[in-house]
Write a structure and sequence with these properties.
The complex is a heterodimer of chains A (299) and B (252). Chain A has 299 residues and is mainly alpha-helical. Chain A is 80% helix and 0% strand. A 6-stranded mixed β-sheet of chain B has the order 6-7-8-3-9-10, sandwiched between helices. Classes of the chains: A mainly alpha (299), B alpha/beta (252). The structure holds adenosine-5'-diphosphate and magnesium ion (MG).
Chain lengths: 299, 252
């Protein structure tokens, strides 16, 4: 019986079957599909061009355009600002990576704490829940202001007053709450039968979590986590309100000196350029995960 | 302790909310014997197995494994589960692990075996079931029958005292049912103590030493298969069996 299955498994038809010639029908279908694809591409290009022209005309003919062009689109200032902005950007990237790592750890910890059952864990569970609710609701900017201005005002000995570190701490506090919700939804998306199977093998609750539930949960939430990373990347720019010289603050210095806003535009563009690959990567990963799940098995 | 009872249930009661699923269930499973649970869908066969494996708590009564009460709140639940293997209708293999990892997880993490030792034993078992070539595959690359056989190997890998098989062929098409049932036949030959629920009456008749018909929350009728299938005492058993025959499942 089982021998049969092994045998049929081996008799897979090879792909390079050179006797095969595509039929007339197949060629006709493919030609039709190519025609359709070409037409859609033309329509897309045409409508994009029309939209761009319309927008351009609208902007250029607006009454304030001349002034706006000088204050936002000044090539000289752009050239002057770019190296400074890029120098500042280093700080944003460091902040993103450092905070990102801490956020993943704290977020996962919070999510796991919230899944603990039993009266012993009630206090931890409650604390974690209150924490998440609090920081989900608190606007990022307020958290930052409180950290950057409030903490130094306390004059605690041994506690840093560095706006960069305090700003980073604010990012970690807030984003840990977001990310823990992402992890939690991942944990809950793992079917209870998986945990039951693990427990019935004799694994303890913690082992079932560690070896069976979390690996599946984490895999599923990678795309939403990347989206959070994108948004963290942008929010590192907020740390500039404390005076840390990041890309935004570098732009601000030049803008203040020259009374021209072009540096802000440069900083904005740099952030966008930095974000695009990440979002594309997240999209690609989401699509891949979906494909996997649709072809998936019985579990 | 030859001839000892591996499993004994005494007046087990289990409710979900207000719904009484098991009213008063009792039976014993001697060592090296096979008990088949039969009964209509919803009669509580799965619930009974989940209670034995302590995945569900019971409301009243007691369950004994090798003479020790496992439903005692002081019993070590993880230790009990280590001695009972379970195979579910829906396989419940871990999709993120290869076949080999699925099988060696419990031996390594629960029983503290070394990796090499656990893998050797797993490959041995896989080989016996004709699955050695699939050791490095992920479960979603296997057919239903292969997945279910892997699930059986996974349950066996820790050398359980008792094996619970809950409708393990219900999700398989007829062609694949045979390959799974032949594994159960082999296990019986090797003296494995098993409790299985099934709709394959022909198979139950062939492999079981004892058949329990679950109805209305009690074991309405139990006995050797020849008696329960051939000459049922209860009218309700008779009716259940004739319904199953009408749906063509008796041949199994
Ligand atoms: N976790 C649960 N919560 C509530 N009701 C349940 C639960 N599990 C099973 N039941 C109910 O218990 C009854 C018996 O179910 P089950 O044990 O699955 O029967 P069987 O396996 O014989 O088909 C059903 O009516 C089912 O709805
Ligand atoms: Mg069932």
């Amino acid at each position: 019986m089982s021998g049969d299955t092994a045998a049929t498994g081996a008799v897979v038809v090879k792909g390079d079957d050179d006797a095969y010639r595509p039929s007339e029908r197949r060629l006709a279908h493919e030609a039709y599909r190519r025609g359709r694809a070409r037409r859609s591409a033309l329509i897309a290009a045409g409508s994009a061009l029309a939209t761009a022209v319309a927008l351009y005309l609208l902007v250029v003919n607006s009454p304030g355009w001349e002034v706006t062009r000088k204050t936002f689109f000044n090539a000289d200032y752009a050239r002057q600002a770019l190296p400074e902005v890029l120098k500042g950007l280093r700080l944003n990237l460091e902040l993103m990576l450092g905070c990102g790592a801490l956020i993943l750890v704290f977020g996962l910890l919070l999510a796991v704490l919230r899944t603990l059952r039993g009266p012993v864990f009630l206090p931890v569970r409650l604390l974690a829940t209150v924490y998440v609710d609090f920081f989900l609701g608190l606007p990022m900017i307020i958290c930052l202001l409180v950290m950057i201005t409030g903490v130094p005002a306390l004059r605690l000995s041994g506690v840093t007053t560095d706006p960069l570190l305090l700003g980073g701490a604010a990012l970690v506090l807030t984003y840990s709450a977001y990310v823990s919700e992402v992890f939690r939804s991942g944990i809950e998306s793992v079917h209870p039968s998986q945990r039951a199977a693990a427990r019935s093998l004799g694994l303890t609750n913690a082992q079932a979590m560690r070896y069976v539930v979390l690996p599946q949960a984490v895999r599923r939430v990678v795309p939403p986590l990347l989206n959070n990373l994108v948004s963290l990347q942008k929010d590192t720019g907020l740390v500039s309100i404390g005076g840390a010289i990041d890309a935004v603050y570098a732009a601000k210095i030049i803008a203040a000196r020259s009374f021209n806003f072009t540096p802000y535009l440069v900083a904005g563009l740099v952030f966008i350029v930095l974000t695009i690959p990440l979002t594309r990567f997240a999209d690609w990963l989401t699509a891949r995960t979906n494909r996997r799940q649709f072809q998936g098995g019985a579990v | 302790m030859s001839g000892a009872d591996v499993l004994r249930l005494e007046s087990v009661r289990k409710t979900f909310g207000g719904q009484v699923v098991l009213r008063d269930v009792g039976f014993t499973v001697p060592e090296h014997s096979v008990t088949a649970l039969i009964g209509a869908s919803g009669s509580g066969k799965s619930t009974l197995m989940r209670c034995v494996n302590l995945l569900e708590g019971i409301d009243d009564g007691a369950i004994f494994l090798d003479g020790a009460e496992i439903t005692d709140p002081r019993a070590d639940q993880d230790a009990v589960r280590r001695r009972i293997g379970v195979v579910f209708q829906s396989y419940n293999l871990f999709p993120h692990m290869t076949v080999l990892e699925n099988i060696t997880l419990a031996p390594r993490r629960v029983h503290g075996r070394g990796r090499a030792e656990a893998e050797t034993r797993a490959l041995e078992l896989l080989d016996r079931l004709g699955l050695a070539a699939k050791a490095k595959e992920y479960p979603d690359r296997l057919s239903g029958g292969q997945q279910q056989r892997v699930a059986i190997v996974r349950a066996l890998a820790t050398g359980p005292r008792l094996l619970l098989l809950d409708e393990i062929t219900a999700a398989l098409d007829p062609v694949l049912v045979g390959e799974v049932l032949s594994v159960v036949r082999d296990l019986k030959e090797q003296g494995m103590t098993m409790v299985l629920s099934t709709h394959e009456m022909g198979f139950a008749r062939e492999v079981a030493d004892q058949v329990c018909f679950l109805d209305g929350g009690v074991v309405l009728e139990q006995g050797p298969p020849e008696q329960v299938f051939g000459d049922p005492r209860e009218e309700r058993t008779r009716r259940f069996l004739s319904r199953v025959v009408a749906s063509g499942r008796l041949q199994g």
